[in-house]
Design goal:
Layout: H1 7-11, E1 27-29, H2 40-48, H3 63-73, E2 80-83, H4 86-97, E3 103-108, H5 113-121, E4 124-129, E5 147-153, H6 165-174, E6 179-182, E7 203-208, E8 221-224, H7 227-234, H8 244-255, H9 257-280, E9 284-285, E10 292-296, H10 302-311, E11 314-321, E12 325-331, H11 335-348
Helix pairs in contact: 2-8, 3-8, 4-5
The protein binds pyridoxal-5'-phosphate.
Pyridoxal-5'-phosphate is lined by residues 32, 85-87, 111, 153, 157, 182, 184, 208, 210, 216, 221.
């Protein structure tokens, strides 16, 4: 036990992200990246960027991005806070709302990072199981004195399931604390809770450019909230949490609405085909509103399937949740990648 760090840090395991092989050539379907390249406008913005500008600090508020995002989402720009990926946004919120010994809540199975953020803070966490239909009961909104923050991924990961915005609003209104609706995958659903933020101060919606904009490597995310919330959260973020190049590239990306619409249509079509083909191979799948599919097989263990695919050069995400069991989360790939995946799975099962 390291005696210099706070005891809660020494005790915690730390978040383990999906494998990110930097050299070996894998078909990579494990971390829900977009299989297609980003908008050409992003490459153009980076080419146009003059390295001389890097002598100065970036705009601490990323105003150009906020203006462009505000226009796209139909909210004023002071309702937006930018972050170095949406994980940064989740961290800022946890630091701002949750003190040591206080409590956070999230559904399970869901995004594992929420628990890690609570542990870093020295906070306690409460995992509320999804119902069998992947909905959430009123217990998710129940009021407990020391509950300071709730997280709700929508669509959820790993299931890809979606809770209707009106139900999310009901839960937000029941809760005694802010609710972050983590909409990392919402562009793939065609729906969102953003328009509900004006009706409930406690509701905050986080978004990322890592998935639908194909910019996981850029690190850019943002939060939509009422200005009374955004102004407080801005005090907690690093002054320069988004660099100049990422602000320029993210702004170009969000302005290219046509690219986004085409990409989303392509990914959703591929998701449906992936789900159909997995069903034909005997997999049990959960209908997904995101860019991945959660599946299990009645006769093959998820661990064996994961390993069999990895040996054949395909990475998918093996996930195991206490009290829930294990499964595979498979990201949408290009048509060619999905053909290889399905051929290999047919061989294994
Ligand atoms: C539910 C959920 N939220 C947030 C993130 C983080 O995304 P970002 O790349 O913006 O940090 C992920 C990444 O996989 C995710 O699955």
């Amino acid at each position: 036990m390291n005696r210099y760090v706070r005891p809660n840090i020494a005790k915690m395991a730390g978040y383990v992200p999906g494998e990110q092989p930097q050299h070996a050539k894998f078909i990579k379907l494990n971390t829900n990246e977009n299989p297609f390249p980003p908008s050409p406008k992003v490459a153009e913005a980076i080419r146009q960027f003059s390295a001389e500008r890097l002598t100065r600090y970036p705009d601490p508020t990323a105003a150009s991005f906020r203006t462009a995002a505000a226009d796209r989402l139909g909210v004023p720009s002071d309702w937006i806070l930018c972050g170095n990926g949406s994980d940064d946004i989740l961290t800022i919120c946890t630091r701002a709302f949750v003190g040591e010994g206080e409590r956070v809540r999230f559904p399970t199975p869901s995004y594992i990072l929420y628990r890690t953020l609570a542990e870093i803070q020295g906070a306690r966490w409460e995992a509320v199981p999804f119902r069998a239909d992947w909905g959430l009961g009123d217990d998710f909104g129940s009021s407990v004195g020391d509950l300071k923050l709730a997280y709700l991924p929508n669509p959820n990961s790993p299931s890809g399931t979606w809770i209707e915005p009106n139900r999310v609003l009901e839960l937000a209104e029941m809760l005694p604390c802010p609710l972050i609706v983590d909409e990392a995958y919402a562009d793939f659903t065609g729906d969102s809770c953003v328009s509900l933020v004006s009706r409930c101060e406690k509701m905050l919606v986080s978004r990322t450019l890592s998935k639908s904009y194909a910019l996981a490597g850029l690190r850019f995310g943002f939060l939509v909230g009422q200005p009374s919330m955004i102004a407080e959260l801005a005090k907690v973020k690093d002054s320069y949490n988004c660099d100049m190049i990422s602000i320029a590239a993210a702004t170009a990306a969000i302005l290219d609405r046509e690219w986004l619409a085409e990409n989303v249509t392509r990914v959703v079509t591929l998701r449906e085909s992936l789900a159909d083909r997995l069903s034909h191979l005997g997999f049990d799948i959960v209908p997904s509103r995101a860019n991945f599919v959660w599946c299990t097989h009645p006769e093959r263990s998820p661990r064996a399937l994961y390993e069999g695919l990895k040996e054949r050069g395909i990475l998918v995400r093996y996930m195991e949740y206490e009290g829930w069991g294990a499964g595979l989360r498979i990201s949408v790939g290009t048509p060619e990648q999905q053909d290889v995946l399905l051929a290999m799975l047919a061989e294994i099962v």
